[in-house]
Design brief:
Elements lengths: L3 H16 L5 E2 L1 H9 L5 H15 L4 E2 L1 H12 L5 H19 L4 H8 L3 H10 L10
Parallel strand pairs: 1-2
Helix pairs in contact: 1-3, 2-4, 3-4, 5-6, 6-7
GO molecular function, one term: ATP binding
Protein name: Two-component system response regulator QseF/GlrR
GO biological process, one term: regulation of DNA-templated transcription
């Protein structure tokens, strides 16, 4: 949360420069709301919220109500296909490793993959088979 103000202000300047140069800042309450918001979609989600605020504002200062509205819209948004697939892969790999108690050969066989491919998937998702061994 402590890096949100710096990042949010940077993103605001970028969006304002592209769309509405008169937009200068967030109100104090708007910044507090950004700092306390949950950001499961990480930076992409923050970018979307700020872009929406800049697009909808007619004031140089973005209000708390506008941030709240943008956040509500963001919370109902679907993840991108890549994000959904990535989350599915992560959950699937975790489940396989739990079932097989970290046995990569068995997990790879269940997934219909060879061990090398399976290790690459584990690496991509920063998973360690040893974390699932009993």
């Amino acid at each position: 949360a402590e890096d949100i103000p710096l990042l949010a202000n940077h993103l605001l300047r970028q969006a304002a420069d592209r769309h509405k140069p008169f937009v200068r800042a967030f109100s104090t309450d708007a910044m507090k709301r950004l700092m306390t918001a949950s950001w499961p979609g990480n930076v992409r989600q923050l970018v979307n919220v700020i872009e929406q605020c800049v697009a909808l504002t007619s004031s140089p200062v973005i209000s708390d109500a506008l941030v709240e509205q943008a956040l509500e819209g963001e919370n109902t948004a679907l993840p991108t296909f890549a994000e959904a697939r990535n989350q599915f892969e992560l959950n699937y790999l975790r489940k396989l490793l739990q079932i097989t108690k970290g046995n990569v050969t068995h997990a790879a066989r269940m997934a219909g993959r060879n061990r090398t491919e399976f290790y690459k998937l584990l690496s991509r998702h920063e998973l360690e088979a040893n974390d699932f061994k009993e």
